[in-house]
Amino acid sequence: MLGGYRIEGRGAAEISASVERAVSSGDLEPGQLLPPMRELATELGVNPNTVAAAYRILRERGVIETAGRRGSRVRHAPATTGRDHIRVDVPEGVRDVSNGNPDPALLPPLTSAFSAAARHSDREPVLYGDVAVEPELARLARAGLDADGVPDGPIAVLSGALDGIERVLAAHLKPGDTVAVEDPGWGSVLDLVPALGLRTAPVGVDDEGPLVGDVQRVLESGARALIVTDRAQNPTGAAVSATRARALRSVFRDHPEVLVIEDDHGHGIVDLPLQPLAGVTRHWALVRSVAKAYGPDLRLAVLTGDAVTVDRVRGRQRLGPGWVSRLLQRAVVRLWTDGVLDTRAVAAAYGRRRDLLIGALAERGVTARGRSGMNVWVPVPDETGVVARLLHAGWAVAPGARFRMGAAPGIRITVATLAEEETEPLANAVAAAVGPAPARSYV
User: Fold this and answer.
1) Is the preceding omega at residue 48 within 30 degrees of 0, hence cis?
2) Do the strands 209-210 and 199-206 form a parallel or antiparallel pair, or are they unpaired?
3) Ramachandran region of residue 9, left (φ > 0), alpha (ψ -120 to 50) or beta?
4) Residue 226 is inside which H or E element, if any?
5) CA-CA distance, 313 to 398, in Å (whole number)?
6) Predicted TM-score (pTM) of this structure
């Protein structure tokens, strides 16, 4: 049935990870029939419920499909980024507030920085064997991290925040390990973790960051890592407060072996101070990208962490792309040193747009969240219906299913380019789409 491939594992996460690795490598082909649950349970010496749980994980990941008595088969198009398709196709004439992009008008010009970087590279071309990190970039990055209270650590440069998160997870974890993730949270992370053969454990989020009780629960249950968005959390706009940071660090002291990964992609567009969680546990990393402040096409992020973690990340990077273009690094140095970005003005612009929309929704009886960043999260009773009604009314919003696991339904609205005169019409449309609260029955 499976040719030469043998499914392995004792727990549901290990069994599902074994199947997913085989699908990724081609050892299990699309359409291939998997063993019946009881048969596989007998072969592995586990309870049939364990195999049933593993198959359920694989179905949720989009790796297999089940057709009743005909059994479970590898999907003909196995999903590796299953949430990518949960988006709205925006027809012509519909206002798009779904995409999560920064406002192009708030991005700095790049011509001068890249021209200066090119001239530098003409004088001092980078060759094989040269250092991977531009020395001035490392110095400036470290100074910024020091100012934000991030513990001292070496610097690596990666191709964006997600690249950094993936490399840190791969540096420490093995398939079947559990990673605590924010719920709702960044859809790319929610896809990345299972794609690495890891198991996700959802952690609730409020305006001040991950819920302490949820974090404590999943760590006590054996989670090996936790991924936290420090500021401008996607999709809720949460930002870790000083009080929440102290409480989380207290939890980490009881779990010194947990890997803590912080995503500070909001650096440069948020006026709330960073409240770092790093340095309590043995292994940690903080990744800070330039995409939101300087443009998504600048695929560069700075990563720091404990010496072992950064060394492993650098070592694996050397075996792949080698380094992030020093030309790009030099351009980012010029962007930082030339002061072409007024970070306070950018943060204020996004804050003003968020506050206007949240206030307008509140006036209409609609609760919304958005403490930082460029997104507003609106809890709704019926995602599909609300998204469809808004689309009919001329507004495209992001369905919450892209960002959540067990969290309640919601929609994400990107306010990055929302003009002040658009706020009231959008709030009216959202209020009409959400509808009045259900009437209470007194019968």
Assistant:
1) no
2) antiparallel
3) left
4) strand 225-229
5) 33
6) 0.82
Distance between CA 137 and CA 211 in Å, rounded?
Answer: 35
* Whole-number Å distance between alpha carbons of 54 and 46: 12
Q: Tokens 């968005």: give the residue.
A: 229
Per DSSP, the three-state class of 396 is strand
Rounded to whole angstroms, the Cα distance separating 417 from 424 reads 15
With tokens 């936790």, the residue in question is 226
| Widest distance between CA atoms in the chain | 83
Among candidates 279, 262, 307, which has minimal Cα distance to 161? 262
Residue type, 3: G
Residues in CB range of 311: below 8 A, 6 or more apart: 154
Instruction: Give the pLDDT confidence score for residue 442 in this predicted structure.
Output: 29
* Under 8 Å between Cβ of 96 and 416: no
pLDDT at 140: 98
Q: What is the DSSP string of 128-182?
A: TTS-SS-HHHHHHHHHHHHHTTPPP--EEEESSHHHHHHHHHHHH--TT-EEEEE
> What is d(CA 292, CA 160) in angstroms, rounded to the nearest whole number?
11
Residues in CB range of 128: below 8 A, 6 or more apart? none
Taking the C-alpha atoms of residue 439 and residue 441, their distance in angstroms, rounded to an integer, is 6
Which residues face 260 on adjacent strands?
226, 284
Cα-based angle 20, 162, 384 (whole degrees, multiple of 5): 75
Place of tokens 């043995």: 282
Question: Taking a C-beta distance cutoff of 8 angstroms, is the pair 400, 235 a contact?
Answer: yes
Q: How far apart are CA 280 and CA 55, in angstroms?
A: 37
Please provide the size of the chain in residues: 443
Which stretches of the chain drop beneath a pLDDT of 50?
78, 81, 437-443
What is the rounded distance in angstroms from the CA atom of residue 181 to the CA atom of residue 193? 9
